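U., I forgot to send this yesterday:
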Amino acid sequence: MRLLPLGLLLLLPQAQAVTPLAQIEAAVDQALSERVASHAQRQGWQGLRFVRESGTLIGNAPPQACAEPLQPRAAQSADAPHGRQRFSLYCPTQPGWSRDYVAEVELYLPVLFTSQAIERGQTLGAGQLKRQEVALGKLSRGFYHRAEEVIGQGAKRSIRADQLLTPALLGQALLVRRGQQVKIQASQDGISASALGEALENGQRGAVIRVRNLSSEKVIKAKVMDEGVVSSRYQ
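Result:
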């Protein structure tokens, strides 16, 4: 049997073998589609979709379908239409024609996974990411949807390939690694100078670490300013 577009289904004269239950479920799906689209727009998500996994009509089905599109009434909320959702539907041309319908809804969204293993402290780049659709009900530990949310962050610990990225796994990237040669910048009374040093500790941006000046062999404390660059204002 040829499937009719949802909008056409809602507008067809209901005497044409469209059952009241089918009309109710079509109206519920239309209302869910609008709420999901609105929620996705608020969140800035692309690709959010819903599945009505089950549904229950409260009471018996009306004896006949409504001659006009049904009007759904559901509590408006900024939250995602996920889980148990209750709708009240009525026929605008038939007083007394109203029914309640309870739907179980699951939402699916493409979220970020690793495309390869990531070492602890490694900075994430676009080439290490991929998207995979997951049910939102399974994302209780958090997730990332947009690549710009994670690019440039560092792995707090080793992350295996094909692993869901969550906030617990990521933090500031390491800009300096222990044993790395770094540029030491110093300034005093408007005079600037620089020297080469060796980092004795790992460091994220803003961290104060120990650095050995390779010329004087003196160990100083320096603030990590950029990748491979420290400032000796903290010596």
